[in-house]
Amino acid sequence: MMEVDYIVVGLGLAGISFCEQLRANDKSFVVFDDNSQQSSVVAGGLYNPVVLKRFTAVWKCEEQLELALTLYSNLESEFGVKLDYKLPVYRKFASLEEQNDWFTASDKPVLSKYLSTKIHKNDNKYINANYGLGEVYDTGRIDVKTLIDTYKKYLIEQNSFIEAGFNYNALGIASEGVNYENITAKQIVFSEGFGIKQNPYFKDLPLQPAKGELLIIHAPELKIDFVLKAGVFLIPLGSDLYIVGATYEWKDLTNEVSVAGRENLLEKLVKLISCPFEVVNQVAGIRPTVKDRRPLVGSHTDYKNVYLLNGLGTRGVMIGPYVASQLFNHIEHNKPLDKEIDIERFN
Length: 347
Ligand SMILES: Cc1cc2nc3c(=O)[nH]c(=O)nc-3n(C[C@H](O)[C@H](O)[C@H](O)COP(=O)(O)OP(=O)(O)OC[C@H]3O[C@@H](n4cnc5c(N)ncnc54)[C@H](O)[C@@H]3O)c2cc1C
Known about the structure:
It contains eight helices and 21 strands. The protein is of the alpha+beta class and 347 residues long. The chain folds into three domains: 160 residues, FAD/NAD(P)-binding domain; 48 residues, no CATH class; 84 residues, D-Amino Acid Oxidase, subunit A, domain 2 (D-Amino Acid Oxidase, Chain A, domain 2), CATH 3.30.9. The strands form four sheets. Strands 1, 2, 11, 12, 13, 14, 20 and 21 form an eight-stranded mixed beta sheet that branches. An eight-stranded mixed beta sheet has the order 8-9-7-16-17-18-15-19, sandwiched between helices. A three-stranded antiparallel beta sheet has the order 3-10-6, covered by helices on one side. Helix 1 packs across helix 8 and helix 3 packs across helix 8. The longest helix is centred in the first third of the chain and has 19 residues. Flavin-adenine dinucleotide binds next to helix 1, helix 2, strand 15, strand 19 and helix 8.
């Protein structure tokens, strides 16, 4: 028999963020993961407090950034790995009108600390940006793959990781706790990303999964050390490698890469850069996005010790630690959840 405080199902950004709450508060737990989803594994890892399509602030960006950056920095020290690569983001302007919109936005109180007030002239001959670039502050890339590999290894050493699909039929629920095979726990948290569609307790929530694909290119002459955002993102990885992303696709919900995805990205890329490059890899995953663009957090209507942490959407790196903290404080300290993230809103 194994007795723990929590069972956690899914070790992506949501699961890891929640496990970190548990560790910080001396709660015992065991995690299941079967590698069936790979949104976190393939993610570009970018964090950025500004929506660069519309020049608006990301919901709760200040709180999110603070929690997320502290968490990744603590993990870096504890595990001795580099996770947080601080990098400025440069938004390419497509027109004078966009430059004006940027100036208007950078004047707003919530945005002024994140947006440069000057327009950078593009001086890289391989980048096509005649209207210049605007700089976003407090941005960077988390190496999510290293985070997951490191975290999983740690959990295995602690005997807290079970590499298996969670069999929903084997879950027993009583008022004092849950049981599963030889494990008893006070509560269970499901953080399965798009895997939620198989979960009988939560599958009817309005998750609108969006497949995303990325390319890794080798472009030895490009030489940029910032994230460039235009029709696509270009994220430098070092050694002349760059992530190019990402696509959005709502029909094909497999984890397989596609020719259409690759062509879509290449078409946008060749409009942005003119130097030679070679595609060295392509990856795909399904983002757990939600109709109203807010996470899915809370407990099951009938089973109060069965919880959900999902719907991280396109911004899991920043929002994961925030929603994990909300859920933990809700379960352990009875703090109400933000109404906007509580799954009660769909009842
Ligand atoms: C191409 C692409 C690029 C992206 N770029 C960024 C970016 O730059 N910045 C950013 O912040 N976000 C980005 N995202 C979004 C980000 O990846 C998601 O917000 C985040 O990864 C979701 O994390 P999650 O833990 O909820 O889900 P997942 O990462 O899908 O994790 C769920 C886990 O649960 C496991 N699981 C599921 N069902 C079961 C089961 N029954 N039993 C056992 N285990 C199970 C899966 O194997 C998986 O490991 C990107 C996504 C994609 C696809």
